[in-house]
Write a structure and sequence with these properties.
heterodimer, A: about 325 residues, mainly alpha, about 70% helix, B: about 240 residues, alpha/beta, four-stranded antiparallel β-sheet, 10 helices, about 40% helix, globular
Chain lengths: ~325, ~240
């Protein structure tokens, strides 16, 4: 037997914590600029809640980008469909939703969210089979097909629900804030943070502790080699696409409750933010997506407070700055 | 001796380029067949075509008598074909352990097989929980080969395993491949390193311009300097 380079020194794997420190540094930097500690805490909590909702909507898209190399410009359709489907459950049970008991409200919200995820996921199955499958590897056609799909979805929603904005009031038990001294943190934002964190942990557990997760991570890096090991990656593609669509549906419900309204083009502004998150996070990176979503939300909230006129371009500036620092995003996974 | 793998009149086009121009070859069961030739002769394309990574435009490929030329890559792999690409293609973001867990498709890692692999590649045991991306080039090559042999395979397709490696690592890899061969593996091995080819090969195929230009015993080619010069000379001239 031969000692094959057993004594070769191996460079210690460096833990790349710079991206993790970035939102922390940004938050700390804002303390003197904002001046008031209570305003800073409120803005930071709002950023984290908004970031978690964007993360939920963007996490599926980044995996679809990374694993399938698919430019899905129609991702917003799943967000809107998710929100509309939730109204089917919430409207008939409006009295329960507005009950004083948190548990009664959650007993209606949870099935509404689950139904939204199921319908969005099923729609994802149809979109992947009908729109994406014929155009794998053809980016321009993917953009055309998915943009067309988004327009069709929006118009279908208008046809089914009408052009008016549908109110989706926040449950009474989730209104109001937790008061900590001078600081008020909205209850719904805390719930959004908890759900976002739970989704992040669940995705991380699946990706890091299961063979399915290993396959997804390997597929993001080298699809061809995964196939050469005997795994049918097309099925994996479909599963990831459906999961990403379902998460977008969940994000749609949460966002609609946050804004207390639903309309067919509700995802138009969000889609830009989601794409920025996916790009600055690094295509296919869930960790990068998580940090990117928090950064985008922080820049939107802090920027909106400090320099309202810059609010429209602040996230574009953030993306430019991040890509100048790390051209392939915070945590580059694929070489695409 | 029966042929495990047979290619008859295989043509492969990549875009508008006609790369394989009617390949006929046979890989006998239990033997190591060397595939030699200059850069661009079509060796890698031959392996990728067998593996289904590029579709043959015409011709027949059979593995143990079963036609595979129109099968998808995962199905070919499931027939017992292990593939070690030229780029090694280890999953850098995964640990050494995770790379091997994925390669062991049919179940959990077999401890006996692992010990056998660690016998050749102690570095893999040492860096078991390290990210594959942080390994050296030689260690990545070890991992790539370990991935192909973690489960019993009917056929191993190995593409230039010694490329770019230090001489000491090349020698060690040759020893490893000899051991795999002694266990009865059937191997189709692309190699540019003539020393490695001479050490490992039972039979040899030489490619040029997408066709097989020579086939015979490796031992005969190893001692026939004029033949070596003729084959290499042809290749060099074609390359100029």
């Amino acid at each position: 037997m031969t000692e094959l380079a057993a004594t070769d020194p191996l460079p210690k794997p460096k833990r790349d914590i710079a991206p993790i420190l970035l939102p922390i540094a940004l938050a700390l930097l804002m303390i003197p600029l904002i001046g008031s500690t209570s305003s800073w805490l409120t803005l930071t909590a709002a950023s984290l809640a908004m970031g978690m909702m964007i993360f939920i909507m963007a996490s599926g898209l980044t995996l679809v980008f990374g694993l399938m190399d698919v430019l899905n410009f129609g991702h917003g359709a799943f967000i809107a469909v998710g929100a509309y489907v939730a109204t089917l459950v919430l409207a008939p049970f409006a009295a329960s939703v507005q009950a004083d008991s948190l548990w009664v409200s959650l007993a209606v919200l949870a099935p509404a969210a689950l139904l939204s995820m199921a319908v969005s996921g099923a729609l994802g199955l149809i979109v992947e089979r009908v729109l994406i499958l014929p155009v794998y590897g053809q980016h321009l056609k993917q953009i055309l097909m998915t943009t067309g799909g988004l327009i069709v979805a929006e118009q279908t929603l208008y046809a089914l629900w009408g052009p008016q904005i549908i109110p989706m009031p926040l449950p009474a038990s989730l209104r109001g804030s937790f008061i900590l001294g001078d600081v008020a943190i909205a209850k719904y934002r805390v719930l959004a943070m908890l759900i976002g964190l739970a989704v992040f942990i669940a995705i991380q557990l699946v990706l890091n502790r299961t063979k399915l997760g290993l396959l997804i991570r390997a597929g993001v890096e080298n699809r061809e080699m995964v196939e050469a090991l005997g795994y049918r990656i097309r099925r994996l593609f479909l599963g990831v696409f459906m999961t990403g669509s379902a998460l977008a549906g969940l994000g749609g419900v949460m966002w609609a409750l946050y804004r207390e309204q639903v309309h067919a083009s509700m995802s138009d502004d969000l889609t830009v933010l989601i794409f920025i998150v996916v790009i600055i996070g690094g295509l296919g990176s869930i960790g990068g997506c998580f940090i990117g979503a928090i950064l985008v939300a922080m820049v939107a909230n802090y920027g909106g407070f400090l320099v309202p006129k810059l609010a429209l371009v602040s996230n574009i500036l953030l993306m430019v700055a991040i890509l100048m620092w790390r051209p392939r995003g915070l945590y580059a996974v694929t070489s695409r | 001796m029966t042929d495990l793998l047979k290619l008859s009149g295989v043509h492969t086009h990549i875009g508008r380029y006609h790369i394989l121009q009617g390949i006929d070859l046979a890989v006998p069961q239990g033997q190591t067949t060397m595939l030699l030739g200059r850069n661009g002769a079509g060796k890698t394309t031959t392996l990728r075509t067998i593996m289904g990574l590029w579709q043959a435009s015409s011709g027949e490929i059979s593995l143990a008598g079963e036609r595979i030329e129109s099968r998808a890559t995962p199905d070919i792999a499931r027939l017992g074909v292990g593939y070690v690409p030229e780029s090694m293609a280890v999953f850098s973001d995964l640990t050494v352990k995770e790379n091997l867990v994925l390669a062991a498709r049919d179940g959990p890692l077999d401890d006996t097989q692992l010990d056998w692999i660690f016998g050749f590649f102690p570095a893999l045991r040492r860096f078991w929980l390290s990210r594959a991306g942080s390994l050296s080039g030689g260690q990545k090559q070890m991992l790539s080969i370990a991935r192909a042999i973690i489960e019993p395979r009917k056929l191993l397709l190995i593409d230039e395993p010694t490329k770019g490696l230090a001489p000491a690592i090349v020698m060690a890899l040759i020893e490893c491949l000899k051991e795999i061969k002694r266990k009865g593996a059937t191997i189709l091995l692309v190699e540019q390193n003539f020393f490695a080819a001479r050490e490992l090969g039972d039979s040899v195929l030489v490619m040029d311009n997408g066709t097989i230009v020579h086939r015979g015993e490796m031992a005969a080619l190893a001692v026939d300097v004029p033949l070596q010069e003729r084959l290499l000379g042809l290749s060099l001239e074609a390359h100029q």
